[in-house]
Write a structure and sequence with these properties.
CATH superfamily of the largest domain: TonB-dependent receptor, beta-barrel domain
Mean pLDDT: 80
Number of helices: 6
Shape: globular
Distance between the termini: 55 Å
Number of domains: 2
Length: 797
């Protein structure tokens, strides 16, 4: 241990004595690049480093001067072993030629491993055609160990809300918007996907659900590349059309990227029916039926530019604009029957919301050396405004007294301003040592205003008890550091992040300040040099701050008998995560661990004190909620044309609430099963199953759900044109909910546009011209801040 500590300190002091990043190319006998070749560097029978060649045959190794043997293997080629001598200043390892195998690929089962493991993450390589053929990113992710995808977002090992990065740039979308965005990225464009279940200190302390990084393949050097895509979904409850166009341009020192997407909804029906079971009172009867026509239309535009000042310095700027118009009309019918009470109500609701978002990102990148050391500065600013206009008209027919009208309206305005600045220093030093030092500042500002009025005696009368005006300011100062090293068969990484948070709001009625430390650590032991058997242990501490929607004490009326109200007194959630993972032959994975929450935020159903027939939902803090999980992942290549992938998660949920201090336990499961067949003439058929057990949140929950999907895909025009036709939710399964109140249990069944059975048709055309280059993107430091903002908007809808 003393020797290890001295080595660590000496490496920090003598950082100028570094390993260098070397680069080589793997090609076949025709001079064509070979992708997914495995390169191993050996010295005295000890494996020093390994790499995988990319779509251009290029591989990179961080290695010191010396003499080594290079071993290159590929399933379709004969292995080679060559001796190389690396000297200071020489970064080019040259071109390595490998000869085709004498056995035809048609006669063998491809066994190249799609999943490998590094110190803190799984890496999925797109090197198994029958497994990833013609899938988009949202379809690829469920094949990753521990990952579960639905319209609510993405979870890793049962923890909902994983962040997604594409080429190191965080995607600021949540829920169904995120899933729809990921559909634009096809497997043919993706080099690899990295799954980080426990995020390191370089990520925000709110990265409690893990990180997913999608790395795209290289595009064109001097020219234009991009794609045009059109989609439509048609069914009993849905009728929408969407289109997108993206272009990447590179010329000289300039790189440009442009993306534009649009959605038009002609039909978006939602149906919810419900009833209440008064177990101790047979005289009560309550039933409801709500039908909604929801028509969201959106337009998104993004434009970015990067200029390389020289070989070591670059600056980037990216602008985004989003405009959403959401019109929703609902009709709700409810009946309450009691010995002395008989009410039939009909409510009509008309809601209109306009959402405008403008954001800008700037970064400066300085490459310190050829080993990968960099200094970067990133600044982000976002301004979002949400305007709401809602009209409500309800008619109550009471037994013996006739009918009563209730007409009221509400207007709302919300403004969110977010600014972040991040500076980080990444160093690659000798002996495979890497470390990072950084600082980040975040400022969140929120202003909300809502006004309710009731129409009475031919004039609008204010309803003061429903009015509110709120302001909220949050400042977060963070400093962080990480270090990682490889010592023979052991890889370890440690990190520490400190955050000071100061918040105030409601004219100083809300005022809090606190400082927290967030450590993390990862240790990997490889049982052999080729890492065919590994054991990984991980730990981290993180935080989840309440999104802005949860903090708003706004009464949002769902219907005449239910509403939502926020809670400005919510506390942040703290999470300790522990995990142990075993990996066998790269593909068979078993993970066990726990996500231990303190003050976890949950939505709780309550009864209105003034009217016992009315219920409402409000967010509260649970004292403790621990999730113990087990993950099994088994991708199986049955034949060269038949793949089977099973990804299963089991969770034991232990809940202790603040209200009762009672402890409850639930067993949950999540299953993704996918089987696909590659047919002649570039046809592909895929069958998928997605199952979840009954899920619990406070005193509410969702009953088990089982979904089956089928897709048929075809590639044309030398794979430039892809066509897909599929059916989602073949058996039209519906989502059902329950809420356990003090004097009754409420049950409801929901079927909506995105959850019903429908046919989906997609066309995508890829175009390019020029030589290969790696697409540059403007990095963003505004990670969790926009996530909380988007959570607020998605919860509002």
């Amino acid at each position: 241990m003393k020797k290890m500590a001295m080595l660590f300190v000496a490496s920090l002091i003598m950082g100028h004595i570094q390993a260098q990043q070397r680069q080589g190319i793997v090609a076949n006998s025709k001079g064509e690049p070979v992708e997914f070749a495995t390169i191993a560097l050996v010295s005295d029978s000890i494996y020093i480093n390994t790499a995988v060649s990319d779509s251009c045959g290029i591989f990179r190794l961080n290695i010191a001067d010396g003499t080594y043997h290079v071993i290159i293997r590929h399933i379709a080629y004969q292995p080679i072993r060559e001796k190389v001598t690396l000297i200071k200043g020489n970064q080019d390892m040259g071109k390595f030629i490998i000869n085709e195998s004498k056995v035809s690929l048609d006669d063998v089962v491809v066994t190249a491993q799609p999943i490998t493991r590094e110190t803190d993450r799984f890496i999925m390589h797109m090197n198994t055609p029958s497994l990833f053929l013609n899938k988009n990113a949202s379809e690829i992710l469920p094949l990753a160990p521990g990952v579960f995808v639905n319209d609510n977002g993405i979870s890793i090992n049962g923890a909902q809300g994983a962040k997604v990065y594409i080429n190191e740039k965080e995607v600021k979308l949540k829920g169904s918007e995120l899933i729809n965005y990921l559909k634009n990225f096809k497997s043919s464009d993706i080099a690899r996907v990295e799954i980080i279940p426990i995020a390191g200190a370089e990520y925000s302390a709110e990265s409690n659900s893990g990180v997913i990084k999608i790395i795209l393949k290289k595009q064109q050097e001097k020219g234009i590349s991009g794609n045009i895509q059109s989609n439509t979904s048609q069914g009993e409850y849905i009728n929408n059309y969407s289109a997108s166009v993206s272009m990447n341009i590179h010329s000289g020192r300039w790189s440009f990227n442009i993306l534009s997407t649009g959605l038009i909804t002609a039909k978006g029906k939602e149906v919810m029916t419900g009833y209440r079971d008064y177990a101790d009172n047979d005289n009560w009867n309550f039933s409801s039926d709500s039908r909604t026509d929801s028509k969201p239309n959106s337009l998104f535009g993004q434009a970015g530019a990067i200029y390389d000042l020289d070989s070591r310095n670059s600056i980037g700027l990216e602008l985004e604009m989003t405009k959403n118009n959401h019109k929703k009309s609902s009709k709700g019918i409810a009946d309450i029957i009691n010995n002395s009470l008989n009410i039939h109500s009909v409510g009509n609701y008309y809601q209109k919301e306009n959402n405008r978002n403008i954001s800008a990102t700037f970064n400066y990148i300085h490459k310190i050396d050829s080993a990968g050391s960099i200094l970067k500065f990133i600044a982000d600013y976002t301004h979002q405004e949400v305007k709401g206009n809602n009209d409500y008209h309800s008619i109550f027919e009471l037994k013996h007294t006739g009918s009563i009208d209730s007409i009221y309206q509400s207007k709302s305005l919300s403004a969110y301003k977010i600014f972040t600045a991040d500076i980080a220093f990444n160093k690659s030093a000798k002996k495979s040592l890497k470390y990072t030092l950084g600082m980040k500042y975040t400022r969140n500002k929120m202003d909300d205003w809502v006004n309710y009025q009731s129409y009475y005696q031919k004039e609008w009368i204010p309803i003061p008890q429903y009015h509110y005006t709120q302001n909220y300011n949050e400042n977060i100062h963070a400093i962080y550091g990480t270090a990682s090293m490889r010592l023979k068969r052991i890889d370890f990484a440690i990190g520490m992040r400190g955050e000071y948070t100061y918040t105030k709001g409601q004219q100083k009625e809300i005022q809090k300040s606190y400082f927290d430390l967030f450590p993390n650590a990862s240790l990997t032991y490889s049982f052999n040099e080729m890492k065919t058997m590994m054991l990984i242990a991980q730990f981290s501490r993180s935080i989840q701050r309440p999104n802005f929607w949860y903090l708003n004490p706004n009464r949002v009326q769902y219907n005449d008998y239910s509403y939502y109200v926020g809670n400005p007194n919510l506390k942040p959630t703290y999470i300790n995560k522990i995990g142990l993972t075993a990996v066998y032959h790269y593909r068979y994975i078993l993970s066990i661990g726990g996500n231990l929450h303190h003050n976890l935020i949950r939505e709780l159903g309550k009864t209105d004190n003034e009217n016992p027939t009315v219920s409402y939902i409000t967010p509260v803090n649970n004292d403790k909620e621990n999730h113990w999980y087990m993950v099994v992942s088994a991708p199986i290549q049955v034949t060269n044309r038949w793949t089977l992938h099973i990804n299963a998660i089991g969770v034991k949920q232990n809940i202790t609430s603040l209200d009762t201090n009672s402890s409850l336990s639930h067993y949950l499961y999540f299953v993704n099963a996918n089987t696909g067949f590659t047919l002649p003439h570039k046809f592909y058929i895929e069958l998928a199953y997605q199952g979840t057990s009954r899920l619990y949140s406070a005193n509410a929950g969702i009953n088990s759900l089982h979904l089956f999907h089928v897709n048929v895909k075809k590639q044309l025009m030398k794979d430039k044109l892809s066509m897909t036709i599929g059916m989602k939710n073949i058996f039209n399964a519906k989502t059902s909910y329950f809420t356990n109140m003090s004097n009754y249990t409420a049950y409801s069944t929901f079927c909506g546009s995105n959850s019903s059975r429908f046919i989906h048709i997609s066309l995508q055309y890829n175009f390019n011209s020029g030589k290969s280059f790696k697409k540059n993107q403007v990095e963003s430091a505004m990670e969790i801040e926009k996530q909380r903002l988007n959570n607020s908007i998605s919860n509002r809808n």
